[in-house]
Write a structure and sequence with these properties.
128 residues, two-stranded antiparallel sheet, Endonuclease, Chain A, alpha+beta, 5-stranded mixed sheet
Length: 128
């Protein structure tokens, strides 16, 4: 499911952070700034939520932590990295698949222009 209004709000929050800080800072700086802006925009979120991994019917203790889950509808992956987009995309799709959330966003603050910071991804519904 795509949430155009929520995606737009999250993009606006990301743009505020980007306009204030620019590119090139550590991930944790952007995450802390996003928390401030999400709260200002009255957008509920969960920071570093644990996502369990089921392996052959056994839940692994290691699991993974997403950056944010926004209003239980969007997995938000925040990075400032020169790694290829494929790496981040694969990571986000894993978070989405394991959490059962079908909408995800990557915010990669390693860009010289905001238009390249936000990317939205969807996992299509399974059809019988």
């Amino acid at each position: 499911m795509f949430y155009p209004m929520l995606n737009t709000k999250v993009s606006a929050v990301a743009e505020k952070v980007y306009r204030e800080l620019g590119a090139g800072l550590p991930d944790k700086v952007y995450k802390e700034s996003l928390i401030h802006e999400l709260e200002e925009a009255d957008i509920s979120y969960e920071k570093d939520p644990f996502i369990p991994i089921d392996y052959k019917g056994r839940v692994l203790e290691s699991g993974i932590h997403a950056c944010f889950i926004i209003e239980n509808r969007i997995v938000l992956y925040v990075k400032n990295s020169s790694k290829s987009g494929g790496y981040h995309t694969n990571q986000l799709y894993s978070y989405m698949r394991l959490s059962g959330i079908r909408c995800g966003m990557i915010l990669d603050f390693n860009s010289s222009e905001f238009a390249k910071v936000v990317r939205v991804f969807m996992v299509p519904e399974k059809r019988d």
